[in-house]
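Hello support,

Our group uses your service weekly, and this is the first time we've seen a run hang past the timeout. The protein is Pseudouridine synthase. I'm not sure whether the cause is the sequence or the server load. Input pasted verbatim:
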Amino acid sequence: MTTPFDPARQQASTVCLPPGNWATVLDCLCDHFKAIERAQWLDRFARGRVLNAEGQAIAADLPYRRGMRLHYFREVPNERPIPVEEAILHVDEHLVVADKPHFLPVTPTGEYVEQTLLRRLIRRLDNPHLVPLHRIDRHTAGLVLFSANPQTRSAYQRLFPERRIDKRYHAIAPALPQRDFPLVHKSRLVHGEPFFRMHEVPGDDNSETLAEVLEKQGELWRYGLSPVTGKTHQLRVHMAALGAGICNDPFYPELLKVEDDYQRPLKLLAHSLRFADPLTGEERYFESRLTLGW
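Update from on-call engineer: The timeout came from a worker crash unrelated to the input. Re-ran successfully.
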């Protein structure tokens, strides 16, 4: 009996061809993925890196059909190695907890595919079913929680939208002696320009952060940050809005065009996670082994 093609195990991406008037599958893919040149798609077809729903290689001149399900392999030519190392803190049947270093993306995006925390863990644990249950920025270090079992994944995924998980971060930023701590900062965050930056605008609040002071050292303080919501770059934007942009932040309060400097990482750490296990009810607590130096 033939085993069905499993795109997760093969680490393949999947696309269903959208409505259109293309003559071939190649024409559709070139138009749909405009950032990938036609020559690159032709090379993938030639190497058998574009497959049909059954996992069989197809030809570039295969006639287009709306809704056709295809699998393909994301590739970044000459992907640059990221010279940092992740640490696995916990593994069980359902969960994997890892410490992500600064500069390493969680999932494939843009110029990074193999140099991501997800792909590294899949290889190390030989588990193609790993899926991150949440995200932290590439510039941020610390804890990332992964589902290791598709059968129980939804139970853990619900922890985040239902706000049944306590996430705590540490950050080093300029002192704010004029403000009273602890404090709660609320605002409305939307995407700005460039597209990857967030900014605050008038309107109903959609983001909330509890901030407290953990340690003081001259002009810099160590802050404890607890996000109630999970908007992109929320902690970075909120700290900048308070007047204390997190140290070494290349995006906030101003966008800096700088190369990655491994000696000057963003001083933001996903420090701990606490939640009641949705399967057993027991309290689970995980704490990063990484620290933020002054």
